[in-house]
Write a structure and sequence with these properties.
This protein is mainly alpha-helical. The chain has helices spanning 6-38, 47-82, 95-108, 141-146, 149-164, 167-195, 201-244, 247-259, 269-272, 301-309, and strands at 87-88, 114-118, 125-128, 136-140. It has one domain. It contains 10 helices and 4 strands, in the order H-H-E-H-E-E-E-H-H-H-H-H-H-H. A 4-stranded mixed sheet has the order 1-2-4-3. Helix 1 packs antiparallel against helix 7 (201-244), helix 5 (149-164) packs across helix 7 and helix 5 packs across helix 8.
Length: 311
């Protein structure tokens, strides 16, 4: 594998994440334009007319997206905070964890986050929170008990990097954009299913066109969402290597985590996306790139380990 320095890896991942994030609104506006273009009478398709209607329509589209975004933002934030069954871990219960977190925060100039524990013997961890007052690092009982100090420190540094980079915010934004297309697609499918023959030919054509474009939007936005998630995992791995100066410790930790990452309380994929390794059954996770890898929240753990070992 060609050597990629840590700073270069961070720059590459940040650049790709920004590009992917910008593609979400671009997809929405692009599909709206296509809908307005093709909904015109077939013999009279006009780019100029489509542009004119598009300019008048854009403010309403953006207002609708913004309203949806505000409501979804707060609902997803509460959902993520409650979905993992984690509970506060006090200093008296585990001074070792507090010492590791405090040392990393002091060394990197970060505010100390809250520390939670997940009562599960599997090995996993995640970071949550969208502002300083609720930033939290959650560790499973298994990962605390089964990792050596340097390995656990590297895992915590990975999660602190997610906090420093505001990755939870990015996660929620990507979920919301995918949710917009999912809602539109489902609504249109229901419209087609229950309309029967009551619609005129023109109305039916409009609904089918809108359904096809919404399905395309859902497919593309899902791919972009998962691509962003994978890039942020690479970013957090690189951040852990920089924070601890010990990339091999995280590589060793990931090897142990990959053997048993499944947290029983996690049922939703948008919550599983937050963990250092997606806590899904191993049979569902490809070990190398394939078409199905486009829909995975995390890169193959073997690739992450290989990158860490060449830093």
């Amino acid at each position: 594998m060609k050597y990629i320095g840590i700073n270069r890896q961070i720059w590459n991942n940040n650049f790709k994440s920004v590009v992917l994030l910008l593609l979400f609104p671009a997809i929405i506006l692009g599909l709206v334009w296509l809908f307005l273009f093709f909904v015109q009478p077939a013999p009279e398709l006009s780019v100029e007319d489509a542009n004119s209607i598009f300019i008048r329509t854009v403010p309403w589209v953006l207002a609708g997206v913004l309203a949806w975004f505000v409501v979804a933002w707060f609902s997803h934030t509460r959902m993520i905070e409650k979905a993992t069954g984690s509970a506060p871990l006090s200093r008296k219960e585990n001074k070792r964890i507090y010492n590791l977190v405090e040392n990393l925060c002091i060394g990197s100039g970060m505010t100390m986050p809250k520390i939670n524990i997940i009562n599960d013997d599997s090995l996993n961890a995640f970071a949550s929170g969208i502002k300083t007052s609720n930033f939290t690092v959650s560790l499973s009982k298994g990962i605390i008990d089964k990792l050596e100090d340097d390995e656990l420190e590297a895992v915590i540094a990975h999660e602190l990097t997610h906090i420093r980079n505001r990755d939870v915010r990015l996660l929620i934004v990507s979920i919301i954009f995918v949710g917009i297309f999912a809602f539109i697609t489902e609504a249109l499918v229901r419209s087609v299913r229950f309309s029967g023959g009551s619609r005129g030919k023109k109305d039916g054509r409009v609904v089918i066109l809108a359904l096809l474009l919404a399905a395309v939007g859902y497919f593309l936005s899902s791919i972009f969402r998962f691509a962003i998630s994978r890039q942020r995992e690479f970013m957090a791995d690189a951040g852990s290597a920089m924070m601890t100066k010990n990339p091999l410790a995280l590589a060793s930790a990931l090897e142990k985590i990959s053997a048993d990452p499944q947290i029983e309380a996690v049922r939703r994929n948008d919550v599983a996306q937050m963990f250092i390794d997606n806590p899904q059954p191993k049979k569902e996770r490809p070990v190398s790139f394939s078409f199905s890898s486009l829909f995975m929240t995390h890169p193959p753990i073997e690739k992450r380990i290989a990158l860490l070992r060449q830093f």
